[in-house]
Amino acid sequence: xxxxxxxxxxxxxxxxxxxxxxxxVEGTDYLDFYGGHGVISIGHAHPRYIDAxxxxxxxxxxxxxxxxxxLQVELAEKLGKLSGYTDYNLFLGNSGAEAVENALKVASxxxxxxxxxxxKGSFHGRCSGSxxxxxxxxxxxxxxxxxxxxxxxxxDFEALEKEFKDKDVAGIIIEGIQGxxxxxxxxxxxxxxxxxxxxxxxxxxxxDEIQSGYGRxxxxxxxxxxxxxxxxxxxxxxxxxxxxxxxxxxxxxxxAKKGMLGTTFGGNHLACASAIAVLDVMKDENLMENALQxxxxxxxELKQMDFIKDIRGxxxxxxxEMENAAEFRKxxxxxxxIFTGFxxxxxxxxxxxxxxxxxxxxxxxxxxxxxxxxx
Length: 375
Ligand SMILES: Cc1ncc(COP(=O)(O)O)c(C=O)c1O
Description:
By secondary structure, this protein is an alpha/beta fold. The protein folds into two domains: 14-46 and 286-373, Aspartate Aminotransferase, domain 1, CATH 3.90.1150; 47-284, Type I PLP-dependent aspartate aminotransferase-like (Major domain) (Aspartate Aminotransferase, domain 2, 3-Layer(aba) Sandwich), CATH 3.40.640.10. It contains eleven helices and 15 strands. A hairpin with a 2-residue loop joins β1 (14-18) and β2. It is globular. The termini are far apart. The mean pLDDT is 97. The structure holds pyridoxal-5'-phosphate.
């Protein structure tokens, strides 16, 4: 059997990783400034993460959700405390798209309505509903195109008002910071207007924090910079530092009903052990603070480079807009041995582990300068 060939891949085969360093099968080291799509939060192979998973593996790895699992309760309590959402309820799943599907279902169940407003340039995943609210018709099959969705531009107050005139609106979904779409974020005024109109109409405000959440911007969630409180929040990526786990944080006024949501693997013992270790490390090693400081340093240095057209984002979610970004990124991998990501047509996206050091940040800046001078 061969692999179903859907990914464009670089010719690098990784063997191991530690902190922000990836090593390939030939022993070459790479600096990881992408975290495998922003998944690596506490760094590769963190000793407390390894211990937690290993210990759990020797006890119990999995059992069904019809049997109690106190690790889920511990995870929910710790997540509530660190994020500031102590009164919200948590539903656990396996991937980002699954979290989004469940968030949409909760919004629809709560309101009895079926229309979702999404944002132009959005990416929310590749399952049926999550891809329907993703602004990219190229990756939608005809099967995905039957949902009741409309797209408005980010920060477009007029379009917001207009779409909400429709009585079928179950909710609006917005990324904390758009990742795939180019590292753009809603202004505090826009997010406050969204909150207001949702409260007025009874629609659900959903923030997708799968990429921008989990401490990446220096606060637990990117939307907390705007001081708004959504009804539903999705998390995944950094939550398990590579172990597949996702969650939906649900406001206390949304009532759970037996059988309303469900999953076989979601919230299993191993996944919970990994996610608890992530939260413990984030708290004990002050990783949100580090993300903020490293992000500020990187931005300050980037601002001095005249070939950069724009710098966007917060903390360690940074978009660097420039000409020939795709070629530049390729050079960073092949010549400087640095992994970065891509976002929109001309933007390089940085999503390094939250515990990168000043030495690693300086190495990245030095490599950027050397890549431009050898252009
Ligand atoms: C904002 C956002 N939502 C949802 C997803 C989908 O997550 P997954 O690939 O785990 O299904 C992604 C993935 O990149 C994302 O960036």
